[in-house]
């Protein structure tokens, strides 16, 4: 008996398990037995008739769903998708992408989101092989979201990098920029400073490659402000900007062939090696600015010079006021107050006729300040006043 005949026999047994007999009163379908027979039939059809194996796998998955076994349903659907993608006679990448997505949904219902994310990425790759770039991008984003919802950013960042490679190959520029920004954020979430720095450099290079120079400069300055760039990556980006600013092809070739550029992901390295100088220099350093875009129907006004003054008008002008000088008034004098005379020399000090103290030099006399009133000299008490006061007190 051939394998195809065996498969047909299993298919008949599976149909019998889920088909109600005509005279059965208390009959109940056996979905689990039907699912197993469908699976055996698919195994028999797999090699000689893949076109029959795919429907058998899907029938088994449907029976497992009715038996509330979502894990087995996901496995059967995944087997059908794999056969649709690899078999020469039943190859259909678009259908494989749909089946992989269905299998991922079954894995989610089963409570295994990690398997669901892996299967969703297979669906994205199948859609990529089918040439449906939009569907592939949506599936990549769904896969990333599954990893992030389960707090698995380390797995998500690998999917993001593969999605970036796909969008770069497909020339989906805006999607690639968004994914590169997400790559920077994901590396920052897992505290991978090296990954953040390289991803920021890749973002700047890709923006330059698509000639979005304004945003490239903004992203570079923002990364420098946030401290996202390491030293080597900052120097590499600055070297590329300088080469483009000078419009020097040799300098640009040295900048993009630096060793640090080779450490980036291969799609970004290929993009960097294709960078070319712009038509005009100075667009990055601010030396020259692009001319304003003309507005249809708008005529700009010419600069009007100030009117020249005639000789008669010049004579009628009032002369400028003279500068005002300010001086401080002299200090007021106190009536009846005379400046103090210098104190007389004390006998016995240096220079006095009576001799002085060895090693002692008297201080110089106090020079009166002009305009400053001197302090009054102390008045000596009258002799006998103290004693008289004491006597009167007693």
Commentary on this structure:
This protein has 394 residues and is mostly helical. The chain is 59% helix and 0% strand. α10 runs antiparallel to α11 and α10 (193-209) runs parallel beside α15. The chain is elongated. It starts with a helix and ends with a helix.
Q: Which descriptor suits the 3D outline?
A: elongated
Structural class: mainly alpha
The helix fraction, in percent, is: 55-70%
Distance between the termini: 155 Å
Mean residue pLDDT: 81
Percentage of residues in DSSP E strands: under 5%
Number of strands: 0
For the largest beta-sheet, the strand count, sense and barrel status come to: none
Low-confidence blocks of residues:
286-293, 349-354, 385-394
Tally of DSSP helical segments: 17
Radius of gyration: 48 Å
| Topology as a string of helices (H) and strands (E) | HHHHHHHHHHHHHHHHH
How are the SSEs placed, and which strands pair?
Layout: H1 3-18, H2 31-45, H3 50-66, H4 70-86, H5 93-110, H6 113-130, H7 133-149, H8 153-169, H9 173-189, H10 193-209, H11 213-226, H12 231-246, H13 249-256, H14 259-262, H15 266-273, H16 311-316, H17 385-393
Helix pairs in contact: 1-2, 2-3, 3-4, 4-5, 5-6, 6-7, 7-8, 8-9, 9-10, 10-11, 10-12, 10-15, 12-13
Q: Which structural traits does this protein have?
A:
394 residues; disordered C terminus
Give the gist of this structure.
With 394 residues, this protein is mostly helical. It has 17 helices and no strands.
């Amino acid at each position: 008996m051939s394998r195809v005949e065996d498969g047909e026999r299993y298919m008949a047994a599976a149909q019998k398990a889920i088909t109600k007999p005509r005279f059965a009163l208390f009959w109940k379908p056996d979905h689990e037995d039907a699912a197993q027979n469908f699976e055996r039939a698919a195994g028999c059809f797999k090699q000689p008739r893949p076109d029959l194996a795919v429907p058998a796998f899907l029938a088994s998955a449907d029976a497992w769903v009715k038996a509330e076994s979502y894990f087995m349903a996901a496995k059967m659907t995944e087997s059908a998708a794999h056969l649709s993608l690899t078999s020469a006679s039943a190859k259909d990448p678009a259908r494989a992408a749909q089946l992989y997505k269905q299998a991922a949904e079954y894995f989610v219902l089963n409570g295994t989101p990690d398997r669901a994310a892996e299967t969703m990425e297979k669906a994205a790759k199948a859609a990529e092989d089918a040439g449906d770039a939009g569907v592939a991008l949506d599936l990549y984003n769904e896969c990333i979201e599954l990893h992030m919802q389960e707090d698995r950013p380390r797995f998500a960042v690998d999917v993001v990098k593969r999605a970036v490679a796909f969008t770069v190959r497909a020339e989906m520029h805006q999607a690639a920029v968004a994914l590169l920004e997400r790559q920077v954020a994901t590396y920052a979430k897992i505290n991978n400073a090296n990954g953040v720095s390289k991803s920021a450099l890749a973002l700047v290079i890709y923006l330059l490659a698509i000639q979005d120079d304004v945003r490239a400069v903004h992203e570079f300055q923002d990364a420098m402000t946030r401290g996202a760039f390491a030293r080597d990556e900052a120097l590499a980006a600055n070297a590329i900007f300088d080469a483009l600013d000078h419009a020097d092809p040799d300098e640009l070739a040295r900048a993009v062939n630096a060793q640090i550029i080779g450490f980036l992901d291969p799609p970004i390295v290929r993009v960097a090696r294709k960078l070319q100088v712009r038509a005009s220099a100075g667009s990055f350093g601010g030396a020259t600015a692009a001319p304003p875009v003309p507005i249809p129907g708008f005529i700009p006004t010419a600069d009007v010079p100030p009117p020249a003054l005639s000789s008669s008008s010049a004579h009628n002008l009032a002369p400028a006021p003279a500068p005002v000088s300010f001086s401080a008034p002299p200090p007021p004098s106190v009536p009846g107050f005379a400046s103090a005379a210098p104190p007389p020399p004390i006998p016995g000090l240096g220079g006095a006729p009576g001799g002085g103290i060895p090693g002692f030099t008297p201080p110089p006399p106090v020079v009166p300040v002009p305009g400053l009133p001197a302090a009054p000299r102390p008045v000596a008490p009258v002799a006998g006043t103290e004693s008289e006061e004491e006597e009167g007190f007693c």
